[in-house]
Design brief:
Helix content of chain A: over 70%
Distance between the termini of chain B: 54 Å
Radius of gyration of chain B: 19 Å
Mean pLDDT of chain B: 90
Helix content of chain B: over 70%
Low-confidence stretches of chain B: none
Largest sheet of chain A: 2 strands, antiparallel
Distance between the termini of chain A: 11 Å
CATH architecture of chain A: Orthogonal Bundle
Strand content of chain A: under 5%
CATH topology of chain B: ABC transporter involved in vitamin B12 uptake, BtuC
Oligomer: heterodimer
Number of strands of chain B: 2
Chain lengths: 332, 292
């Protein structure tokens, strides 16, 4: 029993993930694969935050791509125009996204369910217009290029392996942070809030404060992901931070399963890799990849509906069932 | 600004306002009988436009093509409710929101596969020069937009107020349980509501395509604006939705006249957020307290 419980503790899972992350560049230093894995790592950070907000606390956000955008543009502007060091720029991006989340959360979290979805969706659309029109800062619809590589203590991280390790290092720390929150008092409060808001109130949980803090944290993580994205890819444009992307984030958390962290993270990895399947399977033809990319939105949409109807607990539920199955065997 | 110029902006506002009103009515009809917000409403608008262009391409005259598009979209709306939503009715609003979001992704993407990624255009219903009204030019198509909106509103009013079906729909919007006790087949009413909402959205898409063109990705933007219009008036109230649509159209058009066209799209979004935050029951609604 003790062995099974240990085997599934999130710390062990994160340690295994860290080993896997470190093993990839040793096994295959393929530039394309590393680049794709950077996208995956960025999405894992966003999804960790959204899983906290949506999967655990039950508050939907259809505007997370906008927070990623705020982080990306803020960091790119601070480093490129103001000349601040990268770390400060990334922190500023994270802080501004969190502040944006706070400002949106104050009025929006009085709304529930579909009203909250519409309000956050409207916020995403407004930010999209702002990214496109505030040319002085964002470069407008053509995007902003030539963003410098991340730099820590005067050392530029400009190799594909370095960028990959940086993004995934941050992602693992974020996962550890989120796993810790979920295992402690705020995590329990979130689950209570998700189950029944009135019940949570009756237990003495400050539901309003909890929602606002969770929203701000979630938005901040999205901003951090944006800051990493901008500097590792070197180019950003409004299209990356539109409503479509927010919907994809929601789809990933749904497929991963509400109330789980491992599920959404696995879903983020699988669904982000989907359009870049050729990075994993070298023999895959260009046509097959083009087909996958062409049908990406359909796959997301159908997966989302199918999971909600057929397996509401998503991948996370599947993992739990596996775990219970194992524990049962241990008893026998 | 001269009077004629001002009038021109008002006419433009009422033109797009009518379209918002039709889309808002679609939101309201579904919300009224189910209490859910259908995030696929904008896609019905898109389907109305692209399907009309497709039927027209087959050689059908424009009015027949439009009717066929509206009927096809209504059928799609009914199928969507029947096969994706009905069994989940008892699940919370979040689940239903997710299903309609997934549905809109699939509809949008399938439209791109079937009808291509390009802008699609349709000839005006009655081609000809613009009509002069007190110095302002009014496109003939705008008259069609207004005419079709008025017809749709009158038919909807008649349906709600004068028919058995309409009475059943109103009963559903008050209480599903009570309606069922009175022998109303609520599942059928919900299905019909989706059909009507889809038809209203498609009608808007059909009417406006000669003016604005359309494409597979036209749904999201109009969906948000239609929702903003519905919430501005007060969700669930048909008359308020129409007023909300026209007011939103005018606000947008006058913001172009007096502020700038750059942020035109942000106006309706700002209206949406302000109304949601400050007065979620809308201009005409009365505050409802949630029972614990």
């Amino acid at each position: 029993m003790i062995r099974t419980r240990l085997a599934f503790s999130p710390y062990v899972a994160i340690a295994i993930a860290a080993a896997a992350v470190a093993a990839v560049p040793v096994l295959s230093p393929d530039r394309y694969l590393l680049k794709v894995l950077v996208y995956v790592g960025v999405n894992v950070i966003v999804i960790a935050g959204l899983a906290l907000l949506f999967g655990h606390a039950g508050q939907i956000s259809m505007g997370h791509a906008a927070f990623v955008g705020i982080g990306a543009y803020t960091s790119a502007y601070c480093v490129g125009h103001v000349g601040l060091p990268w770390l400060v720029g990334a922190l500023a991006g994270t802080a501004l996204a969190a502040a944006g989340g706070l400002v949106l959360a104050l009025p929006a979290l009085r709304l529930r369910g579909h009203y909250l979805a519409m309000a956050t969706l409207g916020f995403n659309e407004i930010m999209y217009v702002a990214f496109r029109e505030a040319r002085g800062i964002t470069g407008g619809g053509d995007g902003l290029g030539g963003i410098s590589y991340p730099e820590v203590a005067g050392l530029s991280i400009d190799s594909p392996v370095g960028v990959y390790l940086l993004v995934w290092g941050v992602a693992l720390v974020v996962l550890l942070l989120v796993a810790n929150i979920l295992r402690s008092r705020p995590g329990r409060a979130m689950r209570a809030l998700h189950a029944t808001e009135n019940g949570a109130l009756a237990c003495g949980i400050d539901t309003v404060g909890l929602k606002i803090r969770t929203f701000a944290l979630s938005a901040g993580l999205a901003g951090l992901a944006g800051a990493l994205y901008a500097h590792s890819v070197g180019f950003i444009s409004p299209g990356t931070f539109g409503l479509d992307q927010s919907v994809i984030y929601v789809a990933i958390v749904v497929v991963g399963g509400a109330g789980s962290l491992a599920g959404p993270v696995l879903a983020a990895i699988a669904l982000t890799l989907l359009p870049y399947a050729d990075a994993l399977i070298p023999g895959l033809g260009k046509d097959a990849v083009a087909l996958l990319q062409d049908w990406e939105a359909d796959i997301y949409g159908i997966a989302m509906i199918a999971v909600v109807i057929l397996a509401p607990a998503g991948i996370g539920g599947l993992l739990t069932r596996l775990r219970i199955g194992r524990a049962g065997e241990a008893h026998v | 600004m001269e009077a004629a110029e001002f009038l021109q902006y008002v006419i433009a506002g009422l033109k797009s306002g009518s379209i918002y009103a039709l889309v808002a009515l679609g939101f309201t009809v579904v919300y009224g009988s189910t209490g859910i917000i259908n995030f696929a409403q904008g896609e019905f608008f898109m389907l109305g436009g692209v399907l009309t262009v497709w039927f027209y391409g087959l050689g059908l005259p424009v009015p027949i093509a439009g009717l066929a598009a509206v009927a096809t979209t209504a059928a799609l709306g009914i199928l969507f409710e029947r096969f994706a939503l009905r069994k989940q009715r008892s699940a919370g609003p979040l689940v239903l929101v997710i299903i309609t979001i997934g549905g809109s992704m699939v509809m949008k993407s399938l439209a791109r596969h079937l009808f291509g990624p390009d802008e699609l255009s349709l000839p005006e219903f009655t081609p000809g020069p613009s009509i002069d009204i007190a110095g302002a030019a009014v496109e003939r198509q705008a008259l069609w937009v207004w005419g079709l909106t008025i017809v749709a509103v009158v038919v909807l009013w008649w349906l709600y107020r004068k028919t058995r079906l309409g009475r059943a729909m109103r009963a559903c919007s008050i209480s599903h349980d009570a309606a069922r006790l009175m022998g109303i087949d609520t599942a059928r009413i919900v299905m019909v509501s989706f059909g009507i909402a889809a038809a209203l959205g498609a009608l808007a898409g059909f009417a406006v395509t000669p003016l604005t063109q359309t494409s597979w990705d036209a749904g999201a933007a109009i969906g948000v604006k239609g929702f903003a219009a519905a919430i501005l008036g007060g969700l669930g109230n048909p008359v308020a939705s129409v007023v909300g649509g026209l007011v939103l159209g005018l606000l947008e058009s006058l913001s172009v006249a007096f502020i700038s066209s750059t942020y035109k799209d942000a106006i309706s979004l700002a209206v949406l957020l302000i109304v949601l935050f400050a007065r979620p029951q809308g201009l005409f609604g009365s505050a409802r307290r949630e029972k614990v």
